[in-house]
Amino acid sequence: MGKIHEECGVFGIYSPEKTDVATTTYYGLFALQHRGQESCGIVVNDRGVFNSYKDVGLVNDVFKKDTLKKLGLGNIAVGHVRYGTTGSNGRTNAQPIVVNHIKGNMALAHNGNLTNCVELRQELEMNGSIFHTTSDTEVIAYVVTKERITSNSIEEAISKAMDKIEGAYSLVIMSPAKLIAVRDKHGFRPLCYGKTEDGRYVVASESCSLDAVGAKLIREVKPGEIIVFDKEGTRSIETHCGKAKKAMCIFEYIYFARPDSVIENKSVHQARLNAGVCLALEHPVEADVVIGVPDSGIDAAIGYSHQSGIPYGIGFIKNKYIGRTFISPGQKTREDRVKIKLNVISDTVKNKRVILIDDSIVRGTTCARIVKLLRDAGAKEVHMRVSAPPFLNPCYYGTDIDSRENLIACNHTIEEIEKIIDVDSLGYLNVEHLSMLIGEKNNENICAACFNNEYPTEIPKKTTKNKFETKIEEKS
Q1: What is the pTM assigned to this prediction?
Q2: What is the extent of the structural domain holding 351?
Q3: Where does the pLDDT of residue 340 fall: very low under 50, low under 70, confident under 90, or very high at 90 and above?
Q4: Which of 179, 275, 382, 446 has the most CB atoms in a 10 Å sphere around its CB?
């Protein structure tokens, strides 16, 4: 559908008693399915014995009742859902990654992207490491394992590894006796933890996953923090906290996260309503109805409607049974797919001036097809409003956009884009107002580099992936 994608979601559970942690992890991953639809995996720990299963596909396709039963009971488990990119082997790069070393087993799941992955991988290969995947998750696993050999504990090894790995990483790591949550010092990607009524601790990328397994949110993992869950309870290691500027990815609020999630004590749903309010103030226009592109455009459309006084209407019905693994028929692949995924409610838009709200415009191709659906349904005018600023720069922290070449906003003016996608007017969210979505000022504590070119870290000298190329390597 021509959208920007986030790479994955992570989940972990620690139970004081031996229980069916596999099924709980299944439910947790199901709630994170929006973060990754290419592959998924679960590793269960039964007194130091790791049982794992991972494959390409959606969670409910990969994990049937018999598969979960074979994983068995345990007291710790970690899980992962992954979104992959063009030209890659999904099963090979599926997570969690399991490592067997002289001091025991380790399973690791990762959300984000390392900025020094190429250099670390080359260094490891020169020292004899043999890689089985193209993901930077395996690089993290190697670095942690290498440190574990000479460390007194897994958490000590992770702390040492954090001195070497750079970029974005929210991790869940499982040793024979511990579940560990780790977040990079900038806090690019979300990671939170909670507790169930029966005393089980749960770690997940989003709070909606905690809700799905009956866990009450305790708090976010702090940027730079390591949290250990074991038979002694929980303990926090903050050696790396406060050593870098906080830089939470603002696009989590605009698009990636589920609207029922709470990130950094901020409601994602409210952030999107605020985006719509900002758009109504920045780009007012006379119209008859406001509609949103499902799913992430809907909340912003409601916000625009409330602020402008223009009625909100349901403009599209989305086929909820089509995923990114859908096989498109015929030659007109993209156009057919848009028609199958979205259908216009003609009574909402026919002979009306329509304000169309979406979360972003990447290349413009999908957007143009959506506008055409409205035109064909009889819309008299179409005014496009986007709840994000124009994409102008690559992201090095886990979003699948590494090239300016095919970004429509890099190559065309607003007026030119209006003609390309066939709208009567176009308005983007002002980049200076991004922090207003979450009730902050001056874009502090957020990363908006893909919009404003203000990178929180040094830009990588070498990269391995370009979304727009035919054959590329993957990020985790």
Answers
A1: 0.91
A2: 263-320+331-441
A3: confident
A4: 275
